What does this fold into?
Amino acid sequence: MLDLFGHYDVVVVGAGVTGVTAAISAGREGARTLLVEGTGFIGGNVTAGRLTKPTGDVDSGLFWEMMSRAADLGGADISLQDAGWGEYRGIFDPEVMLRIMLQMLEEASVEILLHAQVMDAIGSNQVKGIEVLVKSGRKIILADALIDASGDGDVAALSGAQFAVGNPDSGHVQPMSCYLRMMNVETPVLARYIRENPDEFSSVVLPPVQSDNREDYAFRLLASGFTSLIEKARADGKWAFPKNYLTVKTGLLPGEINLNITRFQGDGLDERVLSRAEVELRKQAYEAVDFCKSYLPGFERGALLDVAPKLGIRETRRITGDYILTGDDVKSGRDFADSIGFARAPLDVHEPGGQGGGIVGVEGGYGVPYRCLLPKNIEGLLIAGRCISVDDVAFGSTRNIPVCVLTGEAAGIAGALAARAKVTPRSIDVGEIQASLHRRGIKVRENADASGS
Ligand SMILES: Cc1cc2nc3c(=O)[nH]c(=O)nc-3n(C[C@H](O)[C@H](O)[C@H](O)COP(=O)(O)OP(=O)(O)OC[C@H]3O[C@@H](n4cnc5c(N)ncnc54)[C@H](O)[C@@H]3O)c2cc1C
It folds into this structure.
């Protein structure tokens, strides 16, 4: 018989941005909440993975509060920007964001358990808790409501939920990447090159006026492309990355550039592949520094600040829920009676198995049904974030931060309501969740304002 770690109203698995949002959300509803995380990091991809720009718009809810509080500390720019494929709001500093997350978790009285890997789910069709591997051994954690925010849908899969992975025909998933940060880049020189060579870029955001002051570019430069410089390097035998474009964005510090340039194709659920990816992507990151210094304007005196400590895994399981959101739903801006949020995020697909990638804007936005958070035939469990119930096309949009946080906030409310009423999340009246979201100023339906009318 394993030791009991504790029994909580709500247990959230995974302390990425989805899980942090879900835990704060449940805590603010008065639920006794535990946030369980396998590593020592809080924030997952958005802090340890350095994915510091929501692709899409967020202007209400807990994540908006996080970004606003980060901006108050000088750690984010939350102005609305047009990137060509659509609008986004906010680039933030990962360490400032982590500081805000820790503050908000504490304010919501959320207990945090780190270095606790979930190994099993207790109960199959009716999930009662989880088994974790912690430093002192294996322990049981019981929950009135469980939220799987593990990104990979580990808890749902361990509970016997159905799931899909990748393209239905090929099984291919979007590739993994690892961000790197360089320092001491002459940002004004880089900005001038981007301004003068618009044909090389699929997406550009720059301050309206060219400045020679590096500080003026903090959080305000974003560009995807550099195609002719990549071609030149390829001809010189200096570009071996399986990719035909790269993305740069500025951070908080003068001369800080975040680079998305590495790529590794493989199954993020296979431990051998994961280990190879960790090593290979770091090797690519070091080679990327050499490429940047030789070929990118302004990088001549640049230096590597760091390679993101967390591997960026774009795609693994999509858990099958009571409803599977489709690419057509997303593209047509469909609204749903049981919507728990109106998502504004484009379809962002890094070509599975190929070198390309592209972001396709979604006009207006679309509703996310509560049913996408309920794993089919499983009681006691909600799914939130990257692993919600969608098809492979809709996934290109729902994997983005604005949609992950929207599902996290709603799952936190639903979990707290279920625990309070001692019922399973599937039995909750979705109107109650929507009412709580309205009180928080979140628009859940296309034609509803924030007050719900
Ligand atoms: C390279 C890359 C670039 C991206 N760029 C952007 C971008 O520019 N803009 C944008 O909006 N989105 C972007 N995304 C997508 C977005 O960042 C992620 O989909 C999102 O952050 C996922 O958040 P999450 O909290 O659901 O998952 P994660 O951040 O992955 O968090 C999940 C957490 O669960 C933990 N966990 C997993 N399994 C277990 C277990 N069994 N037991 C305990 N803990 C567990 C993990 O350690 C992790 O901390 C990008 C993704 C990648 C990979």
About this structure: The longest strand covers residues 137-148. Residues 66 and 103 are 10 Å apart (CA to CA). The longest helix spans residues 271-295.
